[in-house]
Amino acid sequence: MNQSVDAIMRDILFKETLASESNRELLEYLLEQLLEFPEHSLRGKLNVKYESLLKKGSIRDKNVRADILIEFDNTIVDIEAYTYFNKKSLMKSFYYLIRMQSGNLEMGDDYEKLKNSFQINFVDHVHTSLDEHPLTRYYLTSEHDINKKIFKNKFCFIVVRIDKIRELNYNLTGVLKLFKFLSLTRQEERNELAKGDELLMKLNSWIYENISDKKTIQDLEKIAQDIQDEQYYLAGKNDGIIQEKREIAKNLFKMNMSLEDISKATGLTIEEIKKLKEE
Predict the structure, then answer these.
(1) Facing residues of 157 across strands?
(2) 78 C-beta neighbours (distance < 10 Å), count
(3) Taking a C-beta distance cutoff of 8 angstroms, is the pair 26, 203 a contact?
(4) How far apart are CA 20 and CA 51, in angstroms?
(5) CA–CA separation, 155 vs 158, rounded Å?
(6) Is 50 exceeded by the pLDDT of residue 95?
(7) Smallest Cα–Cα separation from 19: which of 62, 70, 59?
C-alpha cells in the first residue's frame, strides 16, 4: 500500500476507534486525563458527534464532519487527528477553538455563559514549531509569568505528538500507555502492550473484531485513497491559482501599476510582488 495512503488510513482508524459507542469508556478516560478531570467524573455524560466514514463509504458528502465533537455539562471538545501537521494546520486548529468558544453565545447573552472549549489534536509528522514533549497543554498566559494562566478551565489547546510517543519505550503507565497503544500499527505489538491492562485488552479485542476483516481494510484503503486524491487535487488547484496571480502581476508591471495596486488586484503580498519584479 502507498505509504501516505496507509498513514491516512491510520488517521481514519483512530477516529473510528475513539468515536465508537463501544469504546465510550476509553473516551471518557482519555478526556478525564487530558482535561485533568477527576476519575470517573465523565461516566455516561458524553454526547459524541461523528460521521463514520466507514458507514458513509465516501468523503464526497460535504455534510460529513471529519472531526469528533463532544459535549457534556457546559463543555465542548473537538478532537482532530493529523497525519501531517504544519503551520496551516496549527492556524486551522486555533480557528476551530475560537469558533467553538464564540459560536455558542447569542447576542445579548452574558459572557459567563460561554462554554468551556477544548481543542485536542493528535499529530504526527510535525512541520511547524511545537513543544517537543509528547503531551502539551497550551493556555492564554503572560509573557512575564507563564504560570499565570487566564481562563485555564475555559479555553485550552491540547497537543498529543504521536511522533514523540512513538519514540518512547514500552514501560509506560496511565494515559501515555494508551497513546503508545494508539500509535502502534501491528497487531502483535498491540497484543503485547495490552497484556494485563483491562481497558487496553478490551480496546484491542474491539479493533480485532471490528476493523481487522478483509472487507473493512479494503473499505479503509478506498476511503484513504479518495482522501489522498482530493488532497492532490486541491494542492494542484491551489498551485494553479497562485501561478495565475503571478502572471497577472507580471502583466500589471508592464502597465506601470504601483506595488500597492498590484497587491490589491491579485491578493499577493508586497514582498511576493517585489520578488517577482526581480525575476
Answers:
(1) 119, 138
(2) 20
(3) yes
(4) 10
(5) 10
(6) yes
(7) 70
pLDDT average, residue stretch 62-68: 59
pLDDT at 37: 93
Mean pLDDT across 56-83? 73
DSSP annotation string for the chain: --HHHHHHHHHHHHHHHHH-GGGHHHHHHHHHHHTTPPTTTTTTT-EEE---HHHH--S--TT---SEEEEETTEEEEEEEESSEEHHHHHHHHHHHHHHHHHT--TT--GGGPPEEEEEEEE-SEES---SSSEEEE-EE-SS-TT-EETTTTEEEEEEEHHHHTTS-S---HHHHHHHHHH---HHHHHHHHTT-HHHHHHHHHHHHHS-SHHHHHHHHHHHHHHHHHHHHHHHHHHHHHHHHHHHHHHHHHTT--HHHHHHHH---HHHHHHHHH-
d(CA 273, CA 279): 10
Most distant pair of Cα atoms in the chain: their distance? 75
Q: What is the mean pLDDT of the chain?
A: 80
Q: For residue range 112-133, list pLDDT tens digits in order.
A: 777 889 999 998 888 888 889 9
Pairing assessment for the beta strands 116-123 and 135-138 based on DSSP bridges: unpaired
Distance CA 241, CA 257 (A): 21
Here the cell at position 90 is 496549527
Summarised one tens digit per residue, pLDDT across range 168-194 is: 888 888 899 999 988 887 778 888 999
User: What are the phi and psi torsion angles at 196 (to 5°)?
Assistant: 80, -5
Confidence grade of residue 224 (pLDDT, cut at 50, 70, 90): low
Q: What confidence score (pLDDT) does residue 269 get?
A: 77
